[in-house]
């Protein structure tokens, strides 16, 4: 195979001295940090089919390489060593290794670190987090968090049964309460209005997530002087650390870590779980609710599954969740279309050939999962929300096109054959399903939780949180969206810009 020099890889041309950093500093399209999704599409067009593009000469950062090919992504992931290197979040690294070094010491945690320190810490906590039985054991606790949040949703509806404009903040509260329940073994009180400590936690969450893009995606002015965003960031991290020290109990996942490796390791783990397990899960919930609310066919099909398997009078268990394959497919499809993180990265530790180009050691490889999972090559009609892509059963069997459902009440088939529009929708969606079946699903085309040893260590817990909330929400309500299409920004989580004013209609 003929290889080409790295300098020949397409990408924006750097200026002398300024490199390419000036593009993000000026912030003109397509180089706005809040709209990195558009930046990725621009780079894909430069790369061409199955190619790669680069953004070189960035102040304080290694050269970035973007391979727009699932096969290439698979090759890179599979060749990495046992201690894969990710790009470090400079401000978080500064907090852990400089500003609060007296606390963290030789225990840097899982976030913002790599190499042997990361590997040692991961070996201490992975069994308690990654084992399937750990997340399954947390389901009863998470059930009550979801139950309380559903009650809160009912209480905050307006006279038109619309959720408030700040519903995304409410989802942050739910996600934070969930992490506290399974990780710290305690209820934090985030779903209550009169809990002062909980309100301070929410304030810190707001401050932290709003300061991250200013610190990690923009010019690092905080290295020169303590900017407002930097002060907010540090104060928020200090608040989280104090919370974890204060609220660590003898229950929850972190309690097991404390017993075997001490309270300090358990506290650091809890801090990292708060940093990565709140905004991501809230964003995933927001996008899934939106896509279900705007796709009546899918929502009805999901409710048929929920009606057939859930009992409103009893606590949900992991066995109940096992009976909801269509719900899991709805979440997978939502994370395909709107992944909470646009891409994952690796810093290669040796020279490599990527997409036919010689890429030097130290380059940062960015896997643009958002682009691949919305690429026609891998997902026919990628803009269409079709959960059936992820289910192996026959399409008509999944959707009950010719069947009636008997679950203690008379129910219409999902599709009324006398309704021409629904019949047309059925044919259109079935055609997409058939094309997907012919293409297959590339295992590296949609990786919302990453891959390998550095994939999301709390993946199973996040999935359980989402399944419980969505099951309860769509079992109790039909959800409507009465506004225009949502737009998204990178903060660095991929979140909606507009207020999430869903309408909730009680189901019989």
Automatic annotation (TrEMBL):
One of its GO terms (molecular function) is iron ion binding. Its cofactor is heme. It comes from the Eukaryota. Heme binds at residue 456. The keyword Metal-binding applies. Keywords: Heme, Iron, Metal-binding, Monooxygenase, Oxidoreductase. PANTHER family: CYTOCHROME P450. Belongs to the cytochrome P450 family. This is Putative cytochrome P450 49a1. It comes from Papilio xuthus.
């Amino acid at each position: 195979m003929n290889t080409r020099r790295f300098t020949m890889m397409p990408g924006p041309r750097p200026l002398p001295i300024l490199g390419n950093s000036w593009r993000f500093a000026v912030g003109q399209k397509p180089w706005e940090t809040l709209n990195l999704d558009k930046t990725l599409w621009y780079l894909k067009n430069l790369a061409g089919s199955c190619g790669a593009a680069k953004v070189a000469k960035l102040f304080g950062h290694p050269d970035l390489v973007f391979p727009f090919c699932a096969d290439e992504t698979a090759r890179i992931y599979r060749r990495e060593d046992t201690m894969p290197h990710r790009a470090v979040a400079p401000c978080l690294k500064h907090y852990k290794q400089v500003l609060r070094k007296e606390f963290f010491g030789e225990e840097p945690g899982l976030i913002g670190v790599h190499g042997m320190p990361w590997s040692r810490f991961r070996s201490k906590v992975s069994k308690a987090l990654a084992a399937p039985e750990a997340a399954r054991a947390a389901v009863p606790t998470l059930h009550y968090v979801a139950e309380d949040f559903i009650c809160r949703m009912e209480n905050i509806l307006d006279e038109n049964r619309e959720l408030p404009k700040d519903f995304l903040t409410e989802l942050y509260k739910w996600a934070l309460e969930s992490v506290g329940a399974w990780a710290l073994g305690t209820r934090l009180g985030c779903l209550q209005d009169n809990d002062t400590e909980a309100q301070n936690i929410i304030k810190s969450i707001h401050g932290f997530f709003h300061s991250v893009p200013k610190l990690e995606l923009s010019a690092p002015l905080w290295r020169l002087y303590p900017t407002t965003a930097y002060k907010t960031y540090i104060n928020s991290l200090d608040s989280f650390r104090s919370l974890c020290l204060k609220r660590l109990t003898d229950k929850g996942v972190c309690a097991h870590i404390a017993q075997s490796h001490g309270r300090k390791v358990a506290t650091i783990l809890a801090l990292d779980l708060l940093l990565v397990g709140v905004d991501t899960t809230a964003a995933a919930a927001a996008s899934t609710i939106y896509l279900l609310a705007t796709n009546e066919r899918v929502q009805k099909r999901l409710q048929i599954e929920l009606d057939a398997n859930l009992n409103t009078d009893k606590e949900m268990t992991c066995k109940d969740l096992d009976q909801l394959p269509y719900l899991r497919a709805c979440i997978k499809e939502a994370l395909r279309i709107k992944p909470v993180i646009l891409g994952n990265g690796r810093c290669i530790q040796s020279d490599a050939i990527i997409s036919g180009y010689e890429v030097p050691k130290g380059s940062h490889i960015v896997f643009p999962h958002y682009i691949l999972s919305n690429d026609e090559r891998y997902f026919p009609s990628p803009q269409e929300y079709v959960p059936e892509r992820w289910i192996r059963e026959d399409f008509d069997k999944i959707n009950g096109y010719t069947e009636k459902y008997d679950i203690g009440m008379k129910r219409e088939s999902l599709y009324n054959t006398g309704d021409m529009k629904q019949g047309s929708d059925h044919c259109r969606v079935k055609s997409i399903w058939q094309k997907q079946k012919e293409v297959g699903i590339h295992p590296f085309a949609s990786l919302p939780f990453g891959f390998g040893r550095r994939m999301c260590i709390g993946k199973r817990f996040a999935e359980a949180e989402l399944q419980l909330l969505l099951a309860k929400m769509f079992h109790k309500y039909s959800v409507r969206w009465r506004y225009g299409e949502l737009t998204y920004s990178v903060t660095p989580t991929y979140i909606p810009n507009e207020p999430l004013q869903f309408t909730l209609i009680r189901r019989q």
